[in-house]
Design a protein that fits this description.
This protein is mainly α and 253 residues long. It has a domain at 90-127 and 149-245. The chain is built from eight helices and four strands; from the N terminus they run H-H-H-E-E-H-H-H-H-H-E-E. It has helices at residues 3-12, 37-59, 69-72, 91-123, 143-147, 151-155, 171-176, 185-225; strands spanning 73-76, 79-82, 231-235, 244-247. Strands 1-2 form a two-stranded antiparallel sheet. A two-stranded antiparallel sheet has the order 3-4. The chain is elongated, with a radius of gyration of 44 Å. The chain starts with a helix and ends in a 6-residue tail after the last strand. Keywords: Nucleus, rRNA processing.
Length: 253
Amino acid sequence: MSAAFRKAAKARQRPHRERAQPAARTKLGLLEKKKDYRLRAHDYHKKQNALRALQKKALDKNPDEFYFKMIRAEVKDGVHVIKQPKDEITPEQMKLMRTQDIKYVEMKRVAEAKKIERLKAELHLLDAAGSAAGRHLFFVDTEREVREFDIAAHLDTVPELVDRVYNRPTIATLQREAVKGPTDPAHLKKLAQQRKNQYDLLRQRIEREKAMFVISQKIQTRKDLLDKTHKVKVKKETTTGPAIYKFKFQRKR
């Protein structure tokens, strides 16, 4: 082929132009250009080589070969998953664990009980502000005494101290000794709030101690259920108490 012929053929060739991206396919991303064929070819050959290597490995595999992952693995939704072995616990081990749990809960419950007793000793069981008022009954003989009854005179104190159920001195004590302690209303209000907070804390600790007692009972019930003795449920488990079972009597040797 002469140089003139090649030159004429090259002149007749149409220049290559990239295709325009159709408007309906813009949501699918940019159109691949001609130069990207090398990347696609490289990826294709890489996958083919990997498949050939797996086929060769499968052909060379010993049919009698065994390893533990054969029984510890499975495919779920196309994903290779290794099964986790389940913990095997004997009944004796379970009983021991329940015993340890009971000991820990009981230790925490005893600690709460000691804190409750300490708080009660500090508060002297005084009525907190906002708590339910107690009732104090006085007995008289006639209706006239009822109409003329004077609580302050009967208690031998001043009318300002009638509403107090604690630290209520008599008139003789007030005449003999000076009033001790704070008398400012703002300070008294602050002390009342502190006392109320202490009683709220005491109530919370009492509720926590009751909850721990219920947990301890439920753990003990679950521990007893590990026994193979025939049993019948008498009462269902509730938030305030464990389930109740009736066990068949067995004579001890």
